[in-house]
What we know:
Elements: H1 2-10, H2 15-41, E1 54-58, H3 59-63, E2 72-78, H4 84-99, E3 104-110, H5 111-120, H6 122-129, E4 132-136, H7 138-151, H8 157-174, H9 193-207, H10 213-217, H11 223-247, H12 256-265, H13 276-308, H14 312-321, E5 332-335, E6 338-341, H15 344-349, H16 351-364, E7 367-368, H17 370-378
Parallel strand pairs: 2-3, 6-7
Antiparallel strand pairs: 1-2, 1-4, 5-6
Amino acid sequence: MAAIEAALVERPLAGREAARSYCRLADAIVLPVIDIAWRHLHPLPTPTKAEHVSVIATGGYGRGEMAPHSDIDLLFLTPYKQTAWGESLIESVLHMLYDLRFKVGHAVRSVEDCVRLGREDITIRTALLDRRYLCGDRALAEELDTVLWRDLFARTGPEFVEAKLAERDERHERHGGSRYLLEPNVKESKGGLRDLQTLFWIAQYLYHTRTPEELVERGVLGRDELDVFTDAENFLWAVRCHLHLITGRAVDLLSFDAQVEIARRMGFRDSGGRRAVEHFMQTYFTHAKHVGELTRIFCAVLEAQHVKARTPLGGRLRRALGFGRRQVAPGFRDRDGRLDFADPEAAAREPILMLRLIQEAVVSRLRIHPDAIRLVAANRH
């Protein structure tokens, strides 16, 4: 852990690299612990089918992203109900991890349990979306992959999207409702890491994507928007890792005292009559704003693709948003239930149209088309 912290001190903005390194460190400890329990404490030369176990990482650990004091979540996957041997094995693994000061969340489930509970609970379903095989019966893990996509994920896209967007709105309200809080929560506040994760969860669910780069291939984000996504993610992970290190615990609230220290650690300096912490928070809020813009573009593209293709999700989004052809002012058009510029080239030449875009969106009660958002973002300087 000291080596990862030293690397972060040397490269204080390398947040994703640090998050992945902490995950690899966890693997380097968790896997030998399981091996000790399996081979030495509870050896089983000829296990029955019921005694096969697959160990799967879920949540942030499954995603391969961890801050210094993040929990690890483990799924012990069994073919049927848990056996006495399996219970002893899992108990030994957990006790050793607790002794090593890990905070561990765990579940013991069959494939059937995962599908049933995932259908009932959106949080469990999301954790399963981020699963990663660690060790044990690989065939059992592959069976879970197949069954989840066939019997759960492929059939519940609209429901998942609606639930995650509603969950996002409720989370924003709980954490102040603004991305410009004086003491934001780097994980949960508006414009924070959870918003980026929500965006990617939805993309995973609908498009079966594995990496943010695939969002460009799917036409969901442009190349410039992908760069904004990765820059924001990298910065926010750096802030979160520094925050855990200076507090010595799993804290995500960016307090005034923490802001000063993190600004120093991340290389911000007093300049132009402003303190380093002011420059740091300005950068933080800029990334939070970019996350908001990306979320709006992503949701708008999602609507446009699914409404145009007349998918079930498109129909539900159309009904939820009250789509219907509406009269708009000259210079604008109703494009698939979204407000867009009638002539983008003219809008780029006439800034007044960009200023009127928000006003027209309010008057017409139309949401803004992603192409219009992109045009404004490209010409805001």
